[in-house]
Every structure is written in C-alpha cells, then in structure tokens.
What we know:
This protein is mainly alpha-helical. It has seven helices and two strands, in the order ααααββααα. Strands 1-2 form a two-stranded antiparallel sheet. The longest helix has 62 residues, at 182-243.
Amino acid sequence: xxxxxxxxxxxxxxxxxxxxxxxxxxxxxxxxAELAQRYFDAGNINRRELALEKAxxxxxxxxLLTARAQAFAARSALNRLMGLTAEQNQWTLVxxxxxxxxxxxxxxxxLKLGIDNRLDVLSLRRRAQAIADRYGLVRxxxxxxxxxxxxxxxxDFDGTVNSGPTxxxxxxxxxxxxxxxxxxxxxxxxAEAALDEKVLDVSNEVHLQSSxxxxxxxxxxxxxxxxxPSREEAVARAQEEQNFMLIxxxxxxxxxxxxxxxxxxxxxxxxxxxTARTELAxxxxxxxxxxxxxxxxxxxxxxxxxxxxxxMDHSTHGGR
Length: 320
C-alpha cells in the first residue's frame, strides 16, 4: 500500500505539471490561430496556412483536455489509496516533481538487499531451516563457503615423485542419517526448491527494476542536458530573426511548441524514473537506502518557459 501511495503521489505531481504545460501550449496555439485569422483577413496568408494554424490550435486543446482528464484520474486514484472520500478531494501538493538523484545503488548491493529483506524469501528460508532442525538435517546451499588451494608431492611405488596443485572444498551434502524416510527427504527438497525458486525470481525482478530506473534516468538526462537546451536555443534564435522580420511570427510559435513538447517529455521521463524507483523498492521489500537523499525540485512550467535571453518576445503579440 505504501508503495502504491508513493507511486500515486509521483503520478499526481507529474500529471498536474503536465496539465499546466499543456494549458500554456494551448493558450499559445490559440493566440497563433487568432493571429492567423487576422493575417488572413488582411490578405497576408492563404486558406491553407489559416487551416493549419486552426488545426494546430485544436490539437493543442485536445492535448490539454486529455492532460486534464489524466490529472483528475491520478488525483482520484491517490485519494482512494489514502482512504479519503470524494468530498475530501480538496488537498493540495506543496512540492513539485523532484529531479532524479545523482547517484544510484549498484546492482550487487540491490540484489543483496532484496535477498536479505524480502519477507517471502525470509519466510521460505525459515521454513527450510525449521524442517532441517526438526529432522536433524544439514541444509544445502548454493554458496561454497570454504575453498583451499595448495600443492602436494607424492611418491609412487616405483620411486618417482609426482607434484601438482590441489583444491579442497566443502560440498553441499545432506546428512540424512541411515534411517530417514523418503517422505522426509522429499519435504526437505521441496522446501529448498521453493526457496531457490523465490531467490531466482527476486534477483531477476530486482535486476529488471534497477534497469528501468537507469533507463528512465538516462532519458531524463537526455531531455535536460541536450534536447531542452537545444529547443530553448531554437526559440531564442527564432525570436531574434522575427525581430528583424526574417521569419514570420508563426515560425516563432512553432519553435515554442517544440519547447513545450520537450518540457512535457522531460516531466514524463522524471515521473517514470520515480515510479520505477518505487517498483524497485517493492522488489526489494524495503525502502531504498538513499530514499531520504535531498533532491532538487523540477522547475514549474511557468518558470521553465520564461525567456532565457534578453530581448523581445513576440510569441503572444498580435501585430505584424
């Protein structure tokens, strides 16, 4: 339940930011369509160009409506998980979506945490040990605890001396005793097989979820470090060119829409990163050790979309 609430919390954070982003994009595109109508009425653009602007405005509005519905659904789902009624759905979130953490745990450390902390693994391990204790058996293990490597010299009957390496190890044998029944042996083997199967499942699940965390983090970093700066640069250059009447205002708005989409993709990738971390915690059977590490909050949409350079921004101007 705690894992589901945490995942739901990240979903609400992201969906509300995406709704704000889509609202800004829809507003910009609506202004573009209105401006296109004025240009058409003045005879500066043709019907095809006007239709394209109106279609883009409609698509942006549809995206906003979809984001709004998804935000409401995410909020309702979290409200239900917290045990609140529909009338108690007036709470607000006081923080934004946090950025991915700088460091992640190694796979080896995560696998050990999963094996040591999963309650289903611990339950099966204790069951196998209880059966062994009941019948006085020695449990087997997949791990070889002691290995000794050395050298040995030996004289044959004809007087020749042979020398070579030796290895000594502890084998995973059962001490069944002479009179143990087949039923006892089967019960012990079934308990050990169930434990081995669960350990195998847990290790693969932890590996999968760890890979998903790293993949979504890589996506978020690609958006943040490369795509978003490139989109911001494109908008800044487009605004400069439009100031000198080298391109139309519609090209500036088109560049701005690309910037909106880059920010939306970034928010989605960060959401997926944190959701994957909650699933990794579920696979481990415990919270991640670095869960309390402070993380910077992602910028709000209104802050993201502030002009990055000084100069005129004609993206919402109605003049030519």
